[in-house]
């Protein structure tokens, strides 16, 4: 069993005896009918003059792209968010020099750590650890990704072996997001985009629940509505993410869209829906 199949297998096992979340497959078909009437979403294109650097920034940003609040989504020191985090990474790497020197990879990572520390990002110690994991093989990994462009299975295996921070999540959210992002930007790994699991986080489950694709049992619904944190690794949290992954796999199958397109369909609409999303203090997403 390869890594992609193993993650789906975990999700299926959680949902085979689900206690808190259920999937409504009839609603999936209805949503797919709407999706077929429009073109798949397109994300804003980034500057790709320097392919290596663009890919490197996705690796660095992806390593620390998680959890921007303390307990409640509205409690964010200095308005921490993913946009601000990526702006910090881009600023720190503005003068990055692949050959080393004053603006070496290590120096740029040092600057990222300095900036996110000043901005008091939540889970700061974990973020620093994940950045430090990239120092030894980060540039070499990106060089390999840029030369491979097709074999996602191999690149995913390498990523998880050399960057434990990416491997720690049972559902590999940030690892899958990295490959979805480079696909969006460069079109790489296209053969895998219909089978790669959706990056399971906070916003896509919220949107699936809004569209009636997943439904919460009373106990879980109350926790989400009242903004009570749900424990990382708990049965509730794993069912939420499992249902999201399995639902999106079916959406990909019925719509004919890719996983990044299905993910984008919901993620780009996230601000149109004001219902709360589940809160979990985690470095996984």
Quickly list its features.
2 domains; 285 residues; 2% strand; single chain; two-stranded antiparallel ribbon; mainly alpha; globular
Which residues sit in consecutive blocks of at least 5 with pLDDT less than 50?
none
Instruction: Give the CA-CA distance, first to last residue.
Output: 24 Å
Helix/sheet category: mainly alpha
Overall geometry? globular
Radius of gyration over all CA atoms, rounded: 19 Å
Could you give a short account of the major beta sheet? Answer: 2 strands, antiparallel
Strands side by side in the biggest sheet: 1-2
Q: Into how many domains do the coordinates divide?
A: 2
> Can you count the helices?
13
Could you walk me through the main structural features you see in this protein, from its secondary elements to its overall organization?
The chain contains 13 helices and two strands, in the order H-E-H-H-H-H-H-H-H-H-H-E-H-H-H. The chain has 285 residues and is mostly helical. The chain folds into two domains: 120 residues, no CATH class; 141 residues, no CATH class. Strands 1-2 form a two-stranded antiparallel ribbon. Helix 4 runs antiparallel to helix 5. The longest helix has 25 residues. The mean pLDDT is 96.
